[in-house]
């Protein structure tokens, strides 16, 4: 977005420059010939009105251009027509021998107005400039009575003005295209930088998560290695089962799968089954998007329950539009802490059986 705004600023500066040139050419260079040849126009009031209309077009364009905004389509359309009509009116009021001379001040001026108006519409700009020059040449030819010297001089003036204003149009087009390409390159660079930063952040978060899980596992491994923990001890076996289930779920969290929640729950179930526990899994409802942090909260009580069970367990996942539930029924008494700000956890013990349910409401309020 910043690159697009920079491109818009460049275009606004270019349009402002054309507007200033137009105003300077009209008031600084063409006002004097208008006054000096006032008596030669037939009728003079038409030429005066055309000069005032052209000045008004410049003033109207300045309302948007000086604020860095593109011209509205209606202003462009009406302005281009008015400018071409004013040019033809001035040319029609010229004396027969005044074409493309000092008295014909509108011929070169109108092209600048068209550049300002049609700055963003190159095709229309070329068509308008062509129409302006063709109309002037036709009016010159219809006036008649021109000798070879006048025709040659007129051709020189037409070609010089045409080539100069065409060069301005080409330069403007090239600058606009280069600014657009620079903006696209800068935007792509920003996207690449953003993706790299996000990937780095994701990798850093994953390392922190793994470090947090391994932080609880490493003391267990150290205790087993230096024989301060007895693998035959019930508490040690429970700690090992808990660590294995946590790591199995953590590895599943980073898999690219269509249904991450069920995939992570299935990973916990698989870890329990590998220890010889009979675990059944039931899933109902269509998959719904569940954020990673919420999935961790939903499966955390399940990890604790399955790591403690020794015989059988039933796990169920229920998804609706309003909530997601992960429940487990075990044949072993398990103590599970309450929920969090993200997930509600209900736990009840019935004799030697424990039922736990973690619930996340997809819609709050």
UniProtKB/TrEMBL annotation:
- What are the transmembrane regions? 12-32, 44-66, 73-93, 99-119, 124-145, 151-175
Task: From the UniProt annotation, give the residues forming the signal peptide.
Answer: none
Which keywords, in A-to-Z order, does the entry hold?
Membrane, Transmembrane, Transmembrane helix
Q: Does the keyword Transmembrane helix apply?
A: yes
Give the protein's recorded name: Signal transduction histidine kinase
Source organism of this protein record: Umezawaea tangerina
């Amino acid at each position: 977005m910043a690159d697009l705004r920079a491109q818009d600023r460049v275009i606004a500066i270019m349009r402002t420059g054309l507007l200033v040139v137009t105003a300077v050419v009209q008031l600084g260079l063409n006002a004097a010939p208008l006054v000096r040849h006032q008596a030669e126009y037939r009728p003079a009031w038409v030429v005066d009105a055309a000069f005032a209309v052209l000045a008004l077009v410049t003033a109207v364009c300045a309302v948007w251009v000086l604020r860095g905004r593109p011209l509205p389509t209606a202003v462009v359309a009406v302005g281009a027509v008015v400018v071409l009509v004013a040019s033809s009116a001035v040319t029609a009021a010229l004396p027969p021998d005044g074409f493309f001379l000092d008295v014909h001040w509108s011929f070169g001026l109108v092209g600048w107005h068209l550049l300002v108006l049609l700055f963003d519409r190159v095709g229309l700009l070329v068509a308008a400039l062509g129409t302006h020059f063709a109309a002037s040449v036709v009016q010159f030819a219809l006036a008649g009575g021109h000798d070879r010297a006048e025709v040659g001089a007129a051709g020189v003036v037409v070609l010089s003005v045409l080539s100069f204003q065409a060069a301005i149009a080409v330069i403007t087009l090239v600058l606009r295209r280069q600014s657009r390409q620079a903006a696209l390159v800068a935007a792509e660079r920003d996207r690449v930088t953003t993706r790299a930063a996000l990937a780095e952040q994701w990798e850093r978060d994953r390392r922190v998560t793994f470090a947090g899980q391994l932080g609880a596992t490493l003391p267990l491994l150290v205790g087993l290695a230096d024989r301060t923990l007895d693998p035959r001890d019930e508490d040690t076996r429970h700690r090992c089962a808990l660590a294995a289930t946590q790591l199995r779920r953590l590895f599943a969290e980073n898999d690219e799968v269509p249904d991450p929640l069920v995939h992570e729950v299935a990973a916990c179930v698989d870890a329990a089954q590998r220890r010889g526990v009979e675990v059944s899994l039931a899933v109902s409802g269509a998959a719904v998007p569940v954020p990673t942090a919420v999935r961790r909260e939903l499966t955390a009580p399940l990890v604790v329950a399955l790591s403690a069970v020794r015989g059988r367990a039933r796990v169920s996942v229920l998804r609706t539009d309003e909530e997601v539930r992960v429940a487990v029924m075990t044949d072993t008494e398990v103590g599970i802490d309450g929920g969090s700000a993200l997930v509600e956890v209900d736990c009840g013990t019935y004799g030697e059986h424990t039922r736990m349910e973690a619930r996340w409401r997809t819609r709050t309020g």
